[in-house]
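Please go through the protein record below and explain what the tokens say about the fold. Record follows.
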Amino acid sequence: MSRIMRINRYLASAGLGSRRTCEDLIRQGLVKVNGTLVVNLSLTIDPDRDRVTFEGREIRPVEKSIILILNKPPGVISTASDTHGRKTVISIARDHGYRDRLFPVGRLDRDTSGMILITNDGDLSYRLTHPKYKIEKVYEVTVTGRVSDGTANKICNGIDTGDYVTRPCRMSIIERDRVSTNLVIRLKEGRKRQIRRMLAMCGHEVKRLHRTALGDLGFKDLKSGDIRPLSEEEENRLRELSGLD
């Protein structure tokens, strides 16, 4: 029985990145099916019959899913490579002996620290980063100034950043005085610099931003810069959260 699938999903299953990233690779003219350049993002293929190449090399779905968790230090870039030679999450994985084709699941800003997944599983990455699957990310945040209850409620209900309106989130005020406030923020979306922009709109500069958990999975055993594979229990829970169990 044939297993017809869209080309972006096939590329993701071969470890080239999330489905969205794979669509970008197609737009760049890097993908061919049976020798013909792919121009239709909705193209479907039969993996048992069609030959798919990326940059001239035939690609096949990865045989074993790899999922790593990294406690990213500040200053490290959340990309597979960097044209300026800066440290990336993938170079950290390489330093620890992981040689497979890997990519980060979503991004953390350069100055943001904390938990980020690294994988070769494009379907899992798609589920974990797409807002419709509503997987919560938890952040510890320190900002300048005293965050009022009114400001917290305003942010939690969704705030217009100028470019977009954020979805509702959850916020807990842990400690505050006239100089600074410590918060815990729980988001189910992850727009670029979202937490920094939400708080900046309310007059508060983020001084520290650290992701502590994905859904109900925390990783307190990892020091800054540490990386390890997920345990079987963690991987099963992650797939349950993303609907891939």
Summary: The chain has three domains: 5-58, 67-131+221-241, 136-214.
